[in-house]
Predict the 3D structure of the following.
Amino acid sequence: MKKPMRKDGGPAPSRIAVKRVYLPAEKADGVRILVDRLWPRGVRKETARLDLWLRDIAPSDALRHWFGHDPDRWRAFQLRYRAELKGRSFELQPIRDALKKGRVTLLFAAHDEDHNNAVVLKELIDQRERAAARRKARA
């Protein structure tokens, strides 16, 4: 997969970060969006410093239970989750709108920072952003 490039030839940085919701909020987070269906245990709404909670963008309960954060099921989870999101690009619109303002941090509660739905969403949105930029450059 080809990565986007900066004018100097280096890879373009993503404007999307992923972060556990349990970590302290930072100014550099930009717009903070929780992308889990369930509210994270032990997190008070007042201290979460969320800008949005997009629970409907999270994987279905059936997919979430099937995956169970098993790294051996990661590849299949990614494909199944992307399939769930197909035809529901309207669910991604709040994230795209937030990106127009600057950096976005997708928040998740899972212990595994490499195998969770926020990672899949980040990759999907980054891919779509790159594709849109290529179309714009060709026009």
